[in-house]
Q: What sequence folds into this?
């Protein structure tokens, strides 16, 4: 089994840590939006974007922004980021929302939320302006993040700046190549060539070539009829299930999870399991899931007797145990459940299976995962992001197979576009694990 067991969120956080160290430095509103910025951190419940931006923990704030589903138009998370962006100057001096790196991720979220829109509002325009300013002030240490955020809205002047930075600052070379590769304007393609030429005969050129070679199947999205970097993704025809291990509210505590697991199979109890964040900081909650998992064969097993709940729990345990190098026999058992769940007609169970099996990254799961988006088109974006944010050569094989078997050019374009958003993070993180 490939030992990369890290969640998508923490992969992004690893990228942010490196960036920060190098620099030296939809729906109804959330219930925590009620003047959350005025709430003292010591009294606030964690898990809300508004609250986390008011508190000093920058990595937690970035994780919440990354999990806001900004790519979904008018998602509750994107709306919360929008409100926080407007209020950020009123935050305390040590608040996460005042940190330039956190501000950059807020801006990226806002830009992503208007991808394909014909009209850009003043708030989103200010986010684009922030990223362009960061790009032109590389000393602030967030130029690489700004490149990723601007990739969908690049103009000729942006390309000139990115080429200059990528050609002269080696730590910005791959972010520059990735941003330019995601754009369809002609200057961007020429920019990739220029940066590569600047490092001819060096180790940096080899790194550029490795990145380009690994991404070549996803760089053919330009030039087709109706496709450009400013076009919106095709509308999804199936509802996207809740993100597993991702929540816009506080992660449930051990007592809440225990109550849910012992309850009957109802939607609110299952939602509690979906809200669990399965990282290392939630060990007591994960243990409640583990106890229920081990006792799932007993009579009157409560919610854990439901196959969908079993898939959600199995995915959570794989995420937690892979990161902590836990019991491999239990990981294998959980993987077996997910390999059955991936053929389910329930999109929530299938989404859990994709997430868990992407962490395992075994060759035997390539075809079943690739077939998911053919059966349930609404899971296409979810699958690409789960695979793209997770290391393992077999995940790239799965993405290539999805692309090869895509029913139409529009679907192939969608795969390309979503992957290009996560490729820089994958390159930064996975290259360190090799």
A:
């Amino acid at each position: 089994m490939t030992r990369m067991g890290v969640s998508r969120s923490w992969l992004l956080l690893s990228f942010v840590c490196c960036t920060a160290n190098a620099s030296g430095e939809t729906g109804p509103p959330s219930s925590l939006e009620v003047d959350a910025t005025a709430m003292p951190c010591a009294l606030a419940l964690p898990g809300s974007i508004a609250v986390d931006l008011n508190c000093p923990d920058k990595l937690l704030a970035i994780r919440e922004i990354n999990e806001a589903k900004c790519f979904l138009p008018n998602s509750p998370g994107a709306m919360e980021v929008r409100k926080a962006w407007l209020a950020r100057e009123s935050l305390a001096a040590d608040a996460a929302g005042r940190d330039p790196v956190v501000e950059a991720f807020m801006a990226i979220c806002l830009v992503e939320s208007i991808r394909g829109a014909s009209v850009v509002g003043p708030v989103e325009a200010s986010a684009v302006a922030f990223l362009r300013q960061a790009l032109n002030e590389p000393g602030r240490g967030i130029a690489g993040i700004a490149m990723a955020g601007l990739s969908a809205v690049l103009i000729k002047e942006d390309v000139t700046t990115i080429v200059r930075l990528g050609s002269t600052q080696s730590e910005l070379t791959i972010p520059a190549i990735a941003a330019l590769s995601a754009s369809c304007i002609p200057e961007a393609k020429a920019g990739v060539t220029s940066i590569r030429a600047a490092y001819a005969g060096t180790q940096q050129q080899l790194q550029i070539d490795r990145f380009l070679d690994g991404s070549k199947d996803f760089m053919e999205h330009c030039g087709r009829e109706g496709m450009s970097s400013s076009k919106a993704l095709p509308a999804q025809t199936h509802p996207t299930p809740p993100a597993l291990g991702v929540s816009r509210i506080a992660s449930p505590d051990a007592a809440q999870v225990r109550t849910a697991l012992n309850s009957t199979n109802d939607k609110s109890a299952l939602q509690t399991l979906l809200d669990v964040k399965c990282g290392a900081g939630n060990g007591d909650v994960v243990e409640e899931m583990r106890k229920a998992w081990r006792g799932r064969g007993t009579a009157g097993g409560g919610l854990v007797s439901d196959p969908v709940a079993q898939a959600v729990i199995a995915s959570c345990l794989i995420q937690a145990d892979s990161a902590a190098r836990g019991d491999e026999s239990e990981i294998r058992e959980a993987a077996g459940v997910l390999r059955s769940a991936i053929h389910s007609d329930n999109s929530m169970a299938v989404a859990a299976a994709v997430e868990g099996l992407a962490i395992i990254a075994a060759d035997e799961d390539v075809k079943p995962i690739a077939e998911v988006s053919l059966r349930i088109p609404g899971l296409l974006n979810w699958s690409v992001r789960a695979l793209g944010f997770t290391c393992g050569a077999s995940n790239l094989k799965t993405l290539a197979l999805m692309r090869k078997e895509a029913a139409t050019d529009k679907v192939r374009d969608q795969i390309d576009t979503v992957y290009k958003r996560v490729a820089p993070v994958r390159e930064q993180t996975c290259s360190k694990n090799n």
